[in-house]
Amino acid sequence: MGGEMEKRTAEQERKEKRMLKVRGLSKTYEGNQVLEQIDLEIGKGEFVVVMGQSGCGKSTLLYCISGMDSPTSGQVVFDGKELAGLSEREMESLRLKRMGFIFQKTNFLKNLSIMDNIVFPAFQNAERGRREIVQEAEALMQRLGIAETAKHDIRSVSGGQLQRAAICRAMINHPAVLFGDEPTGALNSSATREVMDILNRINREGTTVLLVTHDAKVAARADRVIYLEDGRKKAELELGKYEKSMRQEREEELKAWLEGMGF
Length: 263
What we know:
Layout: H1 2-16, E1 18-29, E2 32-43, E3 47-51, H2 58-65, E4 73-78, E5 81-82, H3 88-98, E6 99-103, H4 114-125, H5 130-143, H6 159-171, E7 177-181, H7 189-204, E8 208-212, H8 216-219, E9 224-229, E10 232-238, H9 247-261
Parallel strand pairs: 3-8, 3-9, 6-7, 7-8
Antiparallel strand pairs: 1-2, 1-4, 4-5, 9-10
């Protein structure tokens, strides 16, 4: 009874503080149904993870929600704006100013230093002066423990340092939502914990986070886990805000739930 009441309260809060609303989202590639009638809502400040077997449509869902791809049908509303109603220029501006992205591959420009890669999106935004942008980047790098890598070549730092730099780049324009597609997929367990500590801290400070992952330990850091199967939303699990003291219990609860999903 208490669990049901908690679930209703969480759903009500998401509606009252809605950041993303998805209705009837479907995606077809060359006659193949990749996503089918996905409905979901994500509240401001929520941390949500999407899981499922390889090929279930997780990344496609992320790309459609963030406007990097277009659904075949359905509706995506980002903070009150329906993406289908935006021009290409408006969509580019929304992604640049209101969204941040981190991926398994950092996609940094090889001819630029770590610092130059981080500040690049802010220069594209062109709403702040160079000095302010550089100061912001330095502050982010200091917070994430990579200040000493500012002038380094991207090939001369560790994978964990590079992914921290990618988070700095994603946060440089103060996004409302941070999207991640397997952001820890190429990292060892120690670097994964460090990156997830950072993402939890960013989320606690108010940034909405939506990640795709195969890693149950990563997913256990989320407020809520959504499970996809064959392009459909099969189920979701409410975990609540992450507390380090409850890490093991959350991981065990999620593992048992995933086993029930056939994961």
